[in-house]
Amino acid sequence: MGKIVTADLQASTFARLEQLNAIGAALSSERDISTLLEKILLAAKDITHADGGTLYLVTENEQALRFEILRNDTLGVALGGTSGNPIGFPNLPYTDEHGAPNNSMVAVYAATHVETVNIEDAYTAQGFDFSGTRLYDENTGYRSRSFLTVPMRNHENVVIGVLQLINALEPASGKVVPFSAADQRLVESLSSQAAIALTNRQLILQLEGLFESFINLINLAIDEKSPYTRGHCERVPILTMMLAEAAHTTTTGPLAGFRMNEADRYELKIAGLLHDCGKITTPVHVVDKATKLHTLYDRIDALDVRFELLKRDAEIELLRSQLAQRDPQLAVAAASPTAPEPQSAAEAEAIETAYAARLAQIEADREFLHRANIGSEAMSPADQQRVRDIASRYRWQNGSAETRDFLDPDEIENLSIRAGTLTAAEREIINHHIVATIRMLEQLPWPRHLRRVPEFAGGHHERMDGKGYPKGLKREEMSIQARIMAIADIFEALTAKDRPYKPGKTLSESLHILGKFRENGHIDPDLFDIFIRQRVYRDYANQYLHPEQIDTVDESRIPGYRV
């Protein structure tokens, strides 16, 4: 008979050890902190047949225990964790109001003394205050009896929490019994595994938080360089994830098989946050070039001064002519060697008419250059020729009395930009930011779950027809994630109101342009269809566009969209 009992005991012990090993493996693979904490408590209850339990974590200031999970099967109580029910109990402080150690609370004692406390009956136990337990029992009709309270120590032997079990139940009878020595050893082993798993998860989350903070630091530096791109590095990853989720949930079409897990989502999020990190190398005066003549300042003001000098010279010539008409001798004395001879009344009138015409011409040319300088509209070949005509029409003297062409070659080049405010050389500088982004990201030793970040982030200026940059990739050479980010980057730029060279476009205008991009092979057609069909544009607009930009959209009129 004794051999049978021994064999049964050995089998039970072996089964519980197997269970403990399985629990350890499950804990090490869990990524969500709340679910992990819940698994720890439920596993401890399971291997000890406990009716209830509580899991506490040490607070950030390491001066108290905070309730995280509370379960009681008999009472049907489930608080904290994944239950969705908050725990309203206050923290358990390590010291009382006088600063003395709070050793009367068994959970605090276990944490501060790093010692397991195994109590057969809370009502008869000495040295601890169970008045709160008695009050709880009175209010619920429950009878708290056996307690097993175990500190959770991590790999550095630091207590990070406390695991407390209540009322061990005898499996056969359901009778409340004390926690056995075997129960205690198993829970101590479990609590150690759990503490290490929890610490590892917390360390991973802290490192991820630190990593994202460094990314935000780079983006902040870019934003500080240029207030006009502020928010772009924030909004593009948001829109990227919106479109990615829409693609993930689609059940029809070529992208019906596209799916992401949490690691995939995190990888894409990081790529979105870093997609423009190379802009930290871009000269600020190019990024902030609000007008065609803008360098460190807008040179249109210098042209205004030259136009005023032209008006002054024209007026001086008029006054000289008028002076000669009234008093030839005085005019000769006051005039320069090139002063005009006295004219007749008809000649004087003709001079005044010519003067008025010249002023009108000067003012018309000045207004034209002001309009051309803005760069908000495409410039026709006729307008470009007019810039060159103005450059040769006038001459002016600088402060050193040197006669100069009205516009120098650099000013002619900038004012003749066909669209936008950037010259070809400046556009090349701007485009170089994606090359810098790729080079910077490829230098980092990415872990396995983030190894595609450089490809995702570096492909948002590529085109489906292979005419993009920097690598000229075609659609089939790009990941779906990179194609998603390309659409997000374009749509954010179209709708952004903080760009110096253009106003933020309305929703319908932006979708019309995006549709044209779809038709000319710029963006992925299948993702474009999802963007429209699942109203991703509307969700984004409701959160990030100004109300005046959100107009009525007729999807049937969007170019390239297959209704």
From TrEMBL:
Domain of life from the UniProt record: Bacteria
Keywords in alphabetical order:
Hydrolase
Against SUPFAM superfamilies, the record matches this protein to:
GAF domain-like (SSF55781), HD-domain/PDEase-like (SSF109604)
Report the PROSITE patterns cross-referenced here: HD_GYP
Question: Which CDD domains does this one have?
Answer: HDc
Kindly give the InterPro entries that the UniProt entry links to this protein: GAF, GAF-like_dom_sf, HD/PDEase_dom, HD_domain, HD_GYP_dom
Molecular functions (GO terms): phosphoric diester hydrolase activity
One Pfam family linked to the record: HD_5
Which PANTHER family does the entry mention?
CYCLIC DI-GMP PHOSPHODIESTERASE PA4108 (PTHR43155:SF2), CYCLIC DI-GMP PHOSPHODIESTERASE PA4108-RELATED (PTHR43155)
Recorded protein name is Phosphohydrolase
